[in-house]
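Spend some time on the protein that follows and explain the fold to me:
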Amino acid sequence: MCNLLLAALSTEDPAGLLPARQQMALSLGWHIVLASFGVAFPAMIFVLHRRGIVRDDPVALGLAQRWSKVAAVLFAVGAVSGTVLSFEMGLLWPGLMGRFGDVLGLPFAFEGLSFFIEAIFLGIYLYGWGRMPPRRHLLMLVPMMIAGVVGTFCVLSVNAWMNAPAGFRIVDGRVTDVDPWAAMFNDLVWLQFAHMWVAAYLMVGLLVAGVYAAGMLRGRRDAHHRLGFLVPFTFASAAALVQPVIGHLLGGNLGDRQPAKLAAFELAVTTESPSPLRIGGVLVDGEVRGAIDIPVLGSLIAQNSFTAPVRGLDTIPVQDQPPVNLTHWAFQTMVGIGTLLALAAVLFWVARWRRHDLLDNRWFLRFAIAAGPLAVLALEAGWVATEVGRQPWVVYGVLRTSDAAGSNSGLWWLLAATVALYAAMTAGAVTVLRSMSRRWRAGQLELPSPYGPQARLHDGAEHVGAGGRRGPGTAGRQS
């Protein structure tokens, strides 16, 4: 993925460095999308399921059951990619895990426990339709939501530690005085976790909403599609508005923590006071070309000051600089798409407040379909900016990426096998989900739950409603 564009390796780099970079980039870039569904999807299902119970709404219950089946498919695929990742850390980066395994073991252990808890309660929830009391069944989603949050926090704590190492000392070249709790709860963990957690809701919300926007664009404008759009889009809208604030807080003091990364973000060749905001542009032979400069704004955004300078790349040794153009464009892609999505969310809700329903506007529906892939691109670009911007360090200021890699050139075969595996899993997941969608549109599947939506009986018979009351059957075929 992103590492294909990194600077060429020197002849002194170990043979396993380049394939390890490609392998890790592919695995993380692919798995992060599935992991985001594990974080955000249970909460969206919870909202629909609760609405179905409280309001006796068969449409909401129908959506909750369908989404839970989609979640099961994605969880199964994500389990495979997560298993691959669990082996990759030690296989690809022996210099990292061999030296800092005691420091990083605690969050990895908790992440494994969270994964099993999420799997157990997902199974109970899927099996519970029609077999558990309604409110107890609903509560099975709560451990899933908590496990998703805890697992994400644990993984993000490791990445935050790589950017702000803590919880150990190095004496005579050896790692000593290990405090795994201090490593896990390092200075960056809360903001970096919040940034990723909100990004998951943004991406998943827009991807799911886009599915129903596509249905409405084809003329299926029933309650099923409108509710299927509004619930995830509401989550995504809140995330889109909160994310810039979290991102700004996370970027605070970046010039002190990782000045090379900030200089690459801002494309700052020399130290300027005040520093402009550079939009676009590339660095060619030490000169910025094609950028649009907005005076002062760079200092204001990066340093919360109208005059504070942004340290230039000329003050940083060349061997300590990241791939500047890739880091700069990844950062600006993330920020640009995030700003666009936030504006779209504001536009939708302002129009709705003024009683203009944009769900009747074909151009908005087209944008809603595109918003999901754009959110995926923003998520991936954010990780490229974070990880490539930290180079050449795997543990910032402590361990270089080249020193963490091994000398096994046979990792290229592992990379090829992983590409084939992920391609097969992607094709399989798409095939299964499309098959499920076709059956649902054909009305072939009904919820067997005694409190769920039931097919309308021709003789007008009654069924037990979501709140335990008896009422007429309401759910027919949904597109």
